[in-house]
Amino acid sequence: MKRRATHVLVAALLLLHSAASLSPAAAAAEPGHPTAAAAGTTPAAAAAAPAAAAPATELELAAADEVYDFPLHRLAFGSCFRQQQRWEVEALAAAAAAAAADPAAAPSAAAAEAAEAAEIREKVFETILATKPQGWLWIGDAGYAGMNDGGKNQENKEEILRSFLSFLNIKPQSPRWTRKGLYSSHLFPLPQQQQQQQQQQQTQTQQQQQEQQQQREGDHQQQKQQQQQQQEEGVRL
Asked: How many domains does the chain contain in total?
């Protein structure tokens, strides 16, 4: 139940972050976005500029790790609360059968079956990663960074985190590599914003097509003029 509550909390945070980041107030507070205080249009604004520039660290933390060009219509979570343990059960059964047949070979048989189960699980993860749908996110909890609720008792946390990020093919320039945790932020546009972007793209495409058509017509007209000149020169000769 703890993981399910964690997943719901993460979902709420994602939605709140998306809504806050897409609001006019948030847009004006984005890194690199000019604000009235920074512009210094009035003495009061100029005086407020240092105060507005102070929480730079907070702005960096609030910036999204990944920005998408399609809106978020649905948010669904898959949980390992009732995970499929068939591979582990089959591995234990095979190890038990090997131990019954030859007790001396039981340790090596158990290790081999456990390794095979881990290999199957790894292939499943790779398949999911390779065939992920558009907008697919992998949200990890403590179980992906070692033992559940390991906290300070978990060894090699940084190494485990690097392995997790490498598995997800996180870009080297992502701030997640310097972050002490698995959390991440993702920004989706509102449906209205996406519609505006699509309209702008369509307008640009139409303009390009019109320019290309005009260019073709101009080239065709130029060719006709050249042909007429050649014909006139032939008549003169």
From this structure: 1
Q: DSSP characters for 155-191?
A: SSHHHHHHHHHHHTT--TT-GGGG-SSS---EE---H
Classify residue 112: in a domain, yes or no. Answer: no
Domain assignment present for residue 206? The answer is yes
Q: Over its length of 237 residues, how does the chain's per-residue pLDDT go in tens digits?
A: 444 444 444 444 444 444 444 433 333 333 333 333 333 444 444 444 444 444 555 556 567 888 888 777 777 776 665 555 665 566 666 666 666 666 666 666 666 666 666 666 666 666 666 666 666 777 766 666 666 666 677 788 888 888 888 877 888 888 889 888 778 888 887 777 666 777 788 888 888 888 988 898 888 888 888 888 887 777 766
Domain that holds residue 204: 195-237
Q: Which pTM does this prediction carry?
A: 0.40
- Residue 225 within any structural domain of the chain: yes
Does 205 fall in a domain?
Answer: yes
